[in-house]
Design brief:
Two copies of one chain form a homodimer.
Chain A: H1 2-18, H2 20-23, H3 28-41, H4 47-56, H5 64-77, H6 82-106, E1 110-111, E2 114-115, H7 117-121, H8 123-142, H9 148-169, H10 178-203, H11 208-232, H12 238-241, H13 247-250, H14 256-264, H15 268-280, H16 284-296, H17 299-317, H18 325-339
Antiparallel strand pairs in A: 1-2
Helix pairs in contact in A: 1-18, 3-6, 5-6, 5-10, 5-18, 6-8, 6-9, 6-10, 9-10, 10-11, 11-17, 11-18, 14-15, 14-17, 15-16, 17-18
């Protein structure tokens, strides 16, 4: 009986870790304010253009980045000021803009359960729609009294884009090294996670040391988030994840589990591994077979171990952060990242 | 003999008006400094990314916008400061970024005599490359001491994009009204011409009245520039213009000469005009035939008259600007705009 109760409790903890909206309950009110700012920032004069922009701009998804901005601010100042709500909205807007352009690149037709901009209006308007989101984000940042967000976030956007361009340039490179993979995900994902916390801390008046500690937490959380994202492509339930298993692989993306699996082989097996990786490009069936093999040979577990290491580093950074319920919440996010299924 | 000499003189004036680089001789030194700033602003950390960005970022073309920024500054302050060189480079960078994304949308393979980013690296990298140019432009503006450029130019980019989105949404609308055509070209072209002068004047310390007069000049010059650009699509030598005659028309763009021609018809002829316009879409041969007919029926001349009216308004705005060689140069630019063949 006791054992069953304990197991039920563990299941509940697991479910909670999987459900981000529940975890973020304490910042729900702040996120509503951020959502209102987001809508204000996106206002356009022309009716015709409004339709395109509003399709691009649904404030939904996980809302993890603006939640991190709010949490950083609460940790520092105990609350979320108007400036912090603005930078949180700007961070989410930058994220959404990159998604709009990614969806064109990937030919995706559904995002956050609704039609992508390219699916509804075509690639041409999706390019311009993403540009509008970027311009609105920069505009909102430029109107803050303190130019920190404007300067820092334009650097971060550059870093995200360099990461994405880098990733595109190493497509179909089965020999990609782990270090280069880390450089790519640092740019395309971790940079904005770090930025989400840094701008929240900055506009709440944090010391440089506290801002840097929170930024470090964000960096490692973002690295782990992308590692788990890449692992989910090779595992998990297709219906839950909402995309085709092995899709990254079949598109020629060499991600962490593939790198670790390839590196675990020696001699002739290494040559055979490279051959199998290359065979998986453009061939979804081969990609799926390889994904199953990676699971069986422990490569997914090895990748998860590296993600867990990033999450440990994220938690370590929190040692320099004032204790309290907001820090506790930041401590629980790694569980969500590791256990999430989509 | 006297008559022949006079004619030779007129030919020389015509040639000069056609050759923008000669007209802009007096600001050649300033433009070199702007070019150096442009290259600095675009520096990237990764070797791989540098190749993509440098393809996107050739500082060439007409360089009319940064020349206008320098001229505005010279008119106000007699010289071009480092801040003015920076905003001139930012204006050109914004222009180049919009061209990179336009080339994807239009499927263009050559721009400024070299391969477009999409032709060389594919659409995916061209989307990201254009995004990088925008991010570098915003970053440079954000690093100026005075936030004017950062705030004003992010608004202008929004205006450009709204104009382009608007244009895209009225594709294949043979009944497009002149007022709506003007709204579109105001956004997609005239807004940045106006901005080029406004930021030059502002960072040179101009009074609000002088800044607004120069901005008005830029607005009308830009309106005329786009009107002539749209007319060149329907006339001129294909080899000189460097694109296919009637291309806008065959792509479903309803431009000023078409609108004026359609409006000149009455009754059954109006219905027939709409039918001919629609027949020209997706059919280059019909588009070419219609272009020749528009010329014969005076629609091109009518469009030129409206462009000339804009140029008169541009010159009128100069009445409020201090006299001198820089104002004289601004006075000659309308001749170039009207007489240019490409």
């Amino acid at each position: 009986m006791a054992q069953r109760a304990q197991s039920r409790e563990a299941d509940a903890a697991l479910a909670a870790a999987r459900e981000l909206p529940e975890v973020l309950g304490p910042v729900a009110g702040d996120l509503e304010r951020v959502g209102a700012r987001y809508a204000e920032i996106l206002s356009v004069t022309s009716d015709r253009v409004r339709e395109v922009v509003s399709q691009a701009a649904r404030f939904g998804g996980k809302r993890l980045r603006p939640a991190l901005t709010c949490l950083a601010s609460r940790l520092v100042a105990g609350s979320v000021s108007d400036d912090v709500a603005t930078v949180a909205a700007v961070v989410e807007l930058i994220h959404t803009a990159t998604l709009v352009h990614d969806d064109i690149i990937d030919g995706a037709v559904v995002r956050r359960t609704v039609a992508t901009l390219n699916a509804r209006f075509g690639d041409q308007l999706a390019v311009l729609g993403g540009d509008v989101l970027f311009s609105k984000a920069y505009r909102a940042a430029a109107h803050l009294q303190d130019p920190f967000a404007s300067r820092y976030l334009s650097d971060v956007v550059g870093e995200i884009l360099e990461g994405e361009i880098h990733q595109d340039l190493v497509t179909r490179n089965a020999g990609l090294a782990e270090a280069e993979y880390r450089t790519i995900i640092r740019g395309k994902t971790a940079a904005l996670y770090e930025a989400a916390l840094v701008v929240g801390a900055y506009y709440a008046g944090a010391s440089v040391a506290l801002r840097e500690a929170l930024g470090r937490y964000g960096h490692h959380l973002g690295m782990a988030f992308q590692m788990v994202d890449d692992r989910l492509d090779l595992t998990g339930d297709e219906a839950t994840v909402g995309k085709t298993l092995g899709r990254d692989l079949s598109e020629g993306k060499t991600t962490l589990p593939l790198i670790l699996w390839r590196e675990a082989q020696t001699g002739a097996a290494r040559v055979e591994a490279l051959r199998l990786l290359e065979a998986a490009w453009d061939d979804v069936a081969s990609a799926k077979r390889l994904a199953l093999r990676l699971d069986g040979e422990g490569a997914l577990a090895a990748a998860d171990a590296l993600a867990r290491r990033e999450l440990d580093l994220a938690r370590e950074a929190l040692a320099q952060v004032p204790a309290g319920p907001d820090r506790d919440l930041l401590r629980t996010l790694p569980d969500y990242v590791l256990l999430r299924t989509r």
